[in-house]
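Internal tracking record. Fields below are filled automatically when a chain is submitted to the structure queue. Please do not edit lines marked as system-generated. If the sequence contains nonstandard residues, flag them in the REMARKS field before resubmitting.
Queue: standard
Priority: normal
Entity type: single polypeptide chain
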Amino acid sequence: MEKEEYRISFFKPTTLQARTNRNLIVKLFISWAVAIFGFQILLRVIEKPVPEEALITFSAGWENIESGNATYVDYQVIAQSMIQVMGKITIKPDDYDALKDGTGWALSKVYPEEDLPDLQKDVQHLNQLKEQITSLRDKEYLEAKEIIISKAAPALGIGEGTLLAQLLPIGLDDQLQLLAEENRRKIPEIMSLYLTHNRSVLTDTVFLGFPFHYFYTAVFLLVFFIGLCWIYCYRTDKLHAKLNFLEKID
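SYSTEM-GENERATED OUTPUT FOLLOWS
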């Protein structure tokens, strides 16, 4: 008795219908892979490291400080840039501590020397409250923050109603006038790390209100996948009609 073979292999199809279907799937898969991974490879090939404006101004101010030619504006600029970086959620704890050290030191250079001890006490009080409170809406904590903002923000050229002003009080340590030598060496590297981004024409071009790379990955690829599904269904129906392949309907 002759035994029927029911095994079906995607890689070794035995019928014209199976081979055509296999080839179609392979082509659609390649199109999908090129659209996704090809774009990511292209991004990596043409991208270049580009510093943010904050890094450019920080570098100029830091260079003046290191050369001994710093002005009040230089200290204000580097402090503003360091506070901006401290607001990033991806910053490492050690880097954050180094920038706190640098921000307090820069503030001490532009703040009236005779008033600095009082500001130092305000910062110490705020840091103590930070360890005790259970909510950031604590009234005493918010009042302590506002006192520091009203004193320190104008000295650094920061508007009191800005985000930088809100970040300033928690970006100061208890020793405003001291800057550890290790942190002094690390700060330029830290700033460069967090304020340099790989960019290209694909990330800078705006398409329909979105950066092109975001639109491509978030919108276009989704539509493209749906299109591939439609092509597969359409081509399969055409193949079935060509081969007179009919499904049995009960």
